[in-house]
């Protein structure tokens, strides 16, 4: 799908629609996760390290404590019982994928010089930075290109990892959502969205090529979740309906991404790139209100546990007198979203369950 075709589609669907208009909840269906039965699985590729690049969906502590609320109560209240810089009440996608491949969650890049870190670098490194994007965003932090620079220095300049280490590793990439949030926050026009989508996917494609060129054998990257279902946007409907205008915009990004990845895989002999479809997995969980097979249930998947009083994005905020500017739900396990943008630990567990068949295709013979 070329740029002109995207623009025609976009204008056809959205030119007369206001960007933030509310729609009815819906989305793309995804296959239910399945279990692998019988004998132990046979690995076609079992990584020894996990390298993580991206944003808050995979960050496990790279934002400095003074920068964002992820280091404040009640973040981390479920796991490990205190804030660790994760943008959730507990575990995030990185933690579940690391466990799936039999590794410890890799060390956040900012802690690499701590004395104890020598014991942890053997599992890889987490370079993801909450708030960042493919390009620079209003949330600051090193963008994806800079994160790849960090990884390259760890290999070539500082010799923390060898080329062989990278060849026996997997990379997890979660990025691009903040590029679109930045555009929206700057009141970008609806007509300008197709051009932005094209630029983001083109740059992301270049970045993926670069990661593979460094020697990483398998790269799993996330499609963007249904944006219009984030509490940041559903608060206007009291968390009852998704904004389908935004969801269709994000679908354009995901369609282009699938095409770009298919082309990349055709250009390489080992098909190293796999898309983890967050759009489909989120939508499946919303439709089922959880994951019945694993006993996960959400009463209202669109309503977050930590709800800001003055704004959608004020979880953990307090006023000058220390009075909380948010309310906290009674049962964190009953909510898919933790705050205005991020899933809860239980939310991520349900998403990982939906993604598991794709992950099995990467690693199992």
Automatic annotation (TrEMBL):
<keyword id="KW-0378">Hydrolase</keyword>
<keyword id="KW-0443">Lipid metabolism</keyword>
<dbReference type="InterPro" id="IPR001087">
    <property type="entry name" value="GDSL"/>
</dbReference>
<comment type="similarity">
    <text>Belongs to the 'GDSL' lipolytic enzyme family.</text>
</comment>
<protein>
    <submittedName>
        <fullName>GDSL esterase/lipase At5g03610-like</fullName>
    </submittedName>
</protein>
<keyword id="KW-0732">Signal</keyword>
<dbReference type="Pfam" id="PF00657">
    <property type="entry name" value="Lipase_GDSL"/>
</dbReference>
<dbReference type="InterPro" id="IPR036514">
    <property type="entry name" value="SGNH_hydro_sf"/>
</dbReference>
<keyword id="KW-0442">Lipid degradation</keyword>
<dbReference type="GO" id="GO:0016788">
    <property type="term" value="F:hydrolase activity, acting on ester bonds"/>
</dbReference>
<feature type="signal peptide">
    <location>
        <begin position="1"/>
        <end position="23"/>
    </location>
</feature>
<dbReference type="GO" id="GO:0016042">
    <property type="term" value="P:lipid catabolic process"/>
</dbReference>
């Amino acid at each position: 799908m070329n740029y002109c075709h995207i623009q025609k589609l976009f204008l056809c669907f959205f030119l007369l629609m206001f960007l933030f208009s509310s729609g009815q909840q819906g989305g793309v269906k995804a296959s239910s996760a399945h279990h692998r039965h019988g004998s132990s699985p046979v690995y076609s590729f079992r990584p020894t390290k996990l390298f993580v690049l991206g944003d808050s969906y995979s960050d496990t502590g790279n934002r400095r404590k003074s920068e964002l609320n992820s280091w404040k109560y009640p973040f981390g209240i479920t796991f490990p019982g205190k804030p660790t810089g994760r943008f959730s009440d507990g575990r995030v996608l990185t933690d579940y994928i690391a466990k799936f491949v039999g590794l410890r969650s890799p060390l956040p890049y900012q802690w690499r010089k701590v004395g104890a870190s020598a014991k942890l670098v053997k599992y890889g490194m987490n370079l993801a930075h909450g708030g960042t994007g493919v390009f620079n965003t209003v949330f600051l932090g090193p963008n994806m290109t800079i994160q790849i620079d960090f990884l390259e220095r760890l290999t070539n300049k500082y010799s923390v990892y060898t080329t062989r280490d990278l060849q026996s590793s997997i990379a997890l990439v979660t990025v691009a959502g903040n590029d679109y949030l930045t555009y929206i926050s700057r009141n970008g026009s609806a007509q300008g969205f197709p051009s932005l989508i094209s630029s983001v996917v083109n740059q992301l494609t270049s970045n993926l090529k670069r990661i593979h060129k460094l020697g990483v054998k398998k790269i799993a990257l996330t499609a963007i979740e249904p944006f219009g279902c984030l509490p940041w946007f559903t608060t206007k409907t009291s968390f009852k309906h998704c904004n389908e205008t935004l969801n269709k915009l994000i679908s354009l990004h995901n369609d282009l991404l699938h095409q770009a990845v298919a082309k990349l895989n055709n250009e390489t002999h080992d098909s190293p790139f796999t898309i983890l479809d967050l759009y489909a997995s989120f939508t499946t969980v919303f439709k089922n209100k959880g994951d019945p097979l694993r006993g996960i249930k959400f009463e209202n998947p669109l309503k977050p546990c930590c709800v800001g009083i003055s704004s959608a994005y004020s979880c953990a905020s307090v006023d000058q007198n220390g009075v909380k500017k948010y309310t906290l739900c009674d049962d964190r396990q009953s909510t898919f979203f933790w705050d205005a943008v991020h899933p809860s630990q239980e939310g991520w567990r349900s998403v990982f369950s939906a993604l598991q068949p794709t992950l099995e295709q990467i690693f199992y013979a």
